[in-house]
């Protein structure tokens, strides 16, 4: 599977080229266009039989219950993917040595050698304003993620702090904890920072420049109820 990110960074789309019989698993609704001989199989899990609990857990994490599995025909094929919110996309290749934790709204697609499971964030996420569910990617192969706004990697060696709404993904070699952004909880929220994620260890964090939660809060006061 080869991936080319087009029209970045403001309105990125991923052009996925598949060889004969190759399969790409995507989030529901991510497809823009595809080759005419591409077959689509919609299931809760890429494995036959079961997977309902995984689907329900994904739903709790803000993702769709069903996944689409696109398989190229005998001559191969192309698949174009995008995310609901405007922004950049990134391709991360897993080598089997370590995994990737993806924010619930940042997953777009992965190739066959990657296994996606549900990762429980624990009690440390309860007051973060984010989902308790992470999408855990392991194995070998490419993972496509998206960001709201621009996306950029940060190489962490020690400690690094990221606002909870601006995390797209991070390597599972990093430990993290949720804490207040200021010296006091009142001061943190009054200053607009709220709660942050403190990463520790060595690994990469992919940050996004905008947070959908903050965007929604700015947009909501300007929405006018529809009149019947």
Describe the protein in words.
- The chain is mainly beta and 228 residues long.
- The chain has one domain: Double-stranded beta-helix, CATH 3.60.160.10.
- Helix content is 10%, strand content 48%.
- It has 3 helices and 16 strands.
- Strands 3, 5, 6, 8, 9, 10, 11, 12, 13, 14, 15 and 16 form a 12-stranded antiparallel sheet that branches. A 4-stranded antiparallel sheet has the order 1-2-7-4, with no helix packed on it.
- Strand 1 and strand 2 form a beta hairpin.
- The chain is globular.
- The relative contact order is 0.17.
- About 6% of the residues have low confidence.
Compact overview of the structure:
This protein is mainly β.
Keywords:
12-stranded antiparallel sheet, 16 strands, 3 helices, mainly beta, Double-stranded beta-helix, 228 residues
- The CATH class name reads Alpha Beta
The major β-sheet equals: 12 strands, antiparallel
CATH architecture term: 4-Layer Sandwich
Q: Percent of residues in helical segments? A: 10-25%
Ends apart, CA distance between termini: 49 Å
Strand-pairing-aware structural class: mainly beta
Mean pLDDT: 82
Secondary-structure element order, N to C: EEEEEHEEEEEEEEEEHEH
Strand percent estimate? over 45%
Can you lay out the helices and strands and say which pair or pack?
Layout lengths: L1 E5 L6 E6 L4 E5 L3 E4 L4 E5 L8 H9 L6 E5 L5 E5 L7 E7 L4 E3 L4 E5 L2 E7 L12 E14 L4 E13 L3 E5 L3 E6 L4 H6 L4 E14 L3 H8 L9
Antiparallel strand pairs: 1-2, 2-7, 3-6, 3-10, 4-7, 5-6, 8-12, 9-12, 9-14, 10-12, 11-12, 13-16, 14-16, 15-16
